[in-house]
Design a protein that fits this description.
This protein has 93 residues and is α+β, with helices and mostly antiparallel strands. The protein folds into 2 domains: 38 residues; 44 residues. Helices cover 61% and strands 15% of the residues.
Length: 93
Amino acid sequence: MIDLREIRSVTDFQKNIKSYVQKLKVSRSPMVLTVNGKAELVVQNAETYQELLDEVEKARFVTAVNQGIQEMEAGLGRDATDALDGLRARLAL
């Protein structure tokens, strides 16, 4: 969650970039940067960002698996052997 105390202007961020980079590394929390008083950017350390991407990928995978299970339970799926045979035939393997 974004800490509303961690909203800074791009100008302030640029002037104090070293201290803000260190703060981002330690806090592992994102910081909102504004341009003309409007939120425009979110910055955070790379490790925390990668963790976020990993969580999103995991959530998408779980959603896709659950959708597949629901489709199979509804009788909309195909047997894996039949599906692979169809792929082999289509790809001439």
